[in-house]
Amino acid sequence: RVDRRQRQMCIRDRSKTARIQISEIEQSLDLFKLDVGRYPNEAEGLRALAERPATAQGWNGPYLKKGLPADPWGAAYLYKVPGRHGGPDVFTLGADGKPGGDGENADVYN
Q1: Residues 49 and 26 sit within 8 Å (Cβ to Cβ)
Q2: Cα–Cα–Cα angle for 59, 42, 96, rounded to 5 degrees
Q3: Which of 108, 87, 78 minimizes the C-alpha distance to 18?
Q4: pLDDT tens track for 66-104
Q5: Ramachandran region of residue 46, left (φ > 0), alpha (ψ -120 to 50) or beta?
Q6: pTM for this structure?
């Protein structure tokens, strides 16, 4: 039986893992931009960090050594460009896969 404290630690660990993975993806996006002159568009998505898009002149990847990770809940990370603050957004919708939420259901953004 998992007590409440252990459960909350697990939730924090997953959210922390998501933040670390998102930071690594963000760094890879910046390297992509240095080589190609732009961020991947939404059609290319985060796959452009692992597989060369046909329209990416100067691509020098793959930019993620271990490939594109799934989020800690097993879902694909989401990507939106331009994002909320002008640059690209990389995010996960948490355990429930729905926008918003608290605890393990909270969204994690870059």
Answers
A1: no
A2: 120
A3: 108
A4: 999 999 999 999 999 999 998 999 999 999 999 999 988
A5: alpha
A6: 0.87
